[in-house]
Amino acid sequence: MKSIYKKIGENIQLMDERNNGLRIKQLLGLSISKEFIPSVANTIGTDMENYKIIRKNQFACSTMQVRRDGKMPVALLQTVDEAIISQAYPVFEVKDEKCLLPEYLMMWFSRSEFDREACFHAVGGVRGGLEWEDFENMQLPIPPIKKQREIVAEYNTIQNRIKLNEQLIQKLEETAQAIYKQWFIEFEFPNEKGKPYKSSGGKMIWNEELGKEIPKGWEVGKLCDVSECNPETISSNDNFKSILYLDTSSITNNRITELQILDLENDEIPSRARRKVKDKDIIFSTVRPALKHYGIIKNLPDNLIVSTGFAVIRVNAPNLFPELVYSFLTDEKTVAYLQAKAEMSVSTYPSVTSDDIMNLNFAKPNENVLEMARDIFKSKDDFVNLKNKENQKLNEMKALLLSQLVTIEK
Length: 410
What we know:
The protein is α+β, with helices and mostly antiparallel strands. It has nine helices and 24 strands. It has helices spanning about 65-70, 100-110, 110-120, 130-135, 145-185, 320-330, 330-345, 355-360, 365-405; strands at about 5, 10-15, 25-30, 35-40, 50-55, 60, 75, 80-85, 90-95, 140, 205, 210-215, 220, 225-230, 240-245, 250, 255, 260-265, 275, 280-285, 295, 305, 310-315, 360-365.
């Protein structure tokens, strides 16, 4: 079996094509979760001709700070034909796709064991970086191309099912947000006859705090009147042996991309790993709200700890359900308002404070509307939870398949 192991460097070649003439506009970044993401870098005054071109089926990676991050960020471009990426990232491609499939190589890079080996070699590097020569000398099993195609097909079947579930979840979340807008912003919730309230002549009264009319019987106050912020912090009284840590960059629009498993006795714990969360707590990043680093915590273990970069919001008003407050906070008008406020801050990054969030004006509907909305959101949540559990099992199958790559024989 050992004979099918080959050095990575024997099968790849570096590419260094630059964006001469500024022909390519799409700029991508590279995430620690091994994905390409739209870049948020400030490129004003930057010479974009010096950026590297990356083409479909080529890889980009970062060999810097591998030891610190515990991972080597590396990704295979497949969603677009070409893009540009920072000149700091090595770009490489497979020499001969008749011998090694790019998708199979990316599977190898996705293994946790690959990251551990990369961290081992990065011990002697400057700032915990991985030397390119050490990366090239790492080995992987390369079975016959027919076998590679079979493995990749099996992996893609699982991956595509996960993506389909994620698309269904996203569609449901978008539908829930559309219902929120129709009912709680436009006030067109069903009246007692099932017709849109406001356009059917429902009674409206002027509200000074919001500067507009709202349905009669609704109450307006501050968000702090119906919830509390950052209620719990991890301490020595907690009997955690390990924690799941969520940083602000690892969740976007309620989709978690990575949870770090940290041993409290042996691992270096980030100083920002402080905030405790409970089921249905809302987390909202206070830096650059427009990046949508927010979510609502559901069905996660008790040892989940999130960064102090989040405001943790816990709804405590009777009869008010957290999903409604989450929809309010993530509504495009609320996010735009908070982003504008963040741009006026004097901090290093555009950011808001917890008080900025808790002082938002919030309109609480009457009990009849709340009850109707609660039923809709519960049905949505039940289906989303079902798909999330399915994805959990699929991810376990994917991890098992990746772990079996080392047992491949000719």
